[in-house]
Amino acid sequence: MQSVHRLSNVHNSTVKFQIRDDAKDSCVAVKTSKARHFVTSAKRRTTRGDIKGVVMKSTILIALVICLACFLSGCGGYSSHGNTPLSQTLAGTWDFTYVSSTSGSATVSGTFTQTMGSFSASVALTGTCASSGMISGTVSGSAITGTLTETSPETISVMGTLASTGNTASGTYQVMSATGACAAASGDTGTWSGTRTAVPIGPYSAMVRTANRLPVHVILNLDGEPGQLSGTANFTNSACLHSTRVTGTQSGRHLELRGESGNDGSIVFTGTVDPEARNLILTSVVSGACQAESGSGTFTKMQ
Asked: Which of 3, 213, 224, 297 gets the most CB atoms within 10 Å of its CB?
């Protein structure tokens, strides 16, 4: 009868749970002294079988409450402050199109870096009064807030949303100040949208069509980061090019590679990368003895 009485006390005892609000997002279960007193008393006054049953039932009850507390408090993919979703990232190379409410559109391309929730990038612009600029800002969850400062100068406030995939974004902008060549844009508003482009890594193959010679088979093997790509270009059916090392950069979907082949001349590839970096549409300009082999082709990623 004594053990039965003690067992009923387990269900009446109080268990208190404390959710620590720190960077580790941990959930800590703290039993009160009443529960601890019962277990100690049970060990002294009951049989081994009674203790085992009591402790096991208590443990199961505590574990269930811990799981429920963690679920309700947001343990997992959330920050420990106010159940705020963890920020996504803009890190990578992007192309944006800005559409003015009054004066056409412009493109902005660049490679973004992000530390915690803060991002920045040097960007190239086309179709606008400036050719380059800097953009910086923050990402909180999927919300983007930033400032684009062009060299003309022109300052643009940017707001938007990063898609759940992390590969597209869109929003609105407003020109906060503009002088010099950009003075006419002062006060302009509009919308923007952007697409992340993957980095071309691995081997790509193409038949480069030339104006006056047979097509040249080229294999590009690339590695690195958007701001510092490197690799090799190997040529088949070329009159004088065989293999050369290439280096280059990617800004948004725009790609440029340069290679030197000693006395055989040099080659420059320029063009675009599709969003998944499966195809490179490039034009080659060859100097030196093989300049007649300048041409263009679509480089497809080799499986």
From this structure: 297
pLDDT at 226: 84
**Cβ atoms of 159 and 150 closer than 8 Å:** no
CA distance 206 to 217: 6
- Alpha helices, DSSP H only, in the chain? 2-12, 33-45, 48-73
- How far out from the chain centre does Cα 50 lie? 56
Neighbours of 105 (CB within 10 A): 14
3 state SS of 262: helix
For residue 153, say if its preceding peptide bond is cis, omega within 30 degrees of 0.
yes
DSSP class of residue 24 equals T
Domains of the chain, first to last: 2-73 (no CATH), 92-197 (2.40.128.120), 202-301 (2.40.160.90)
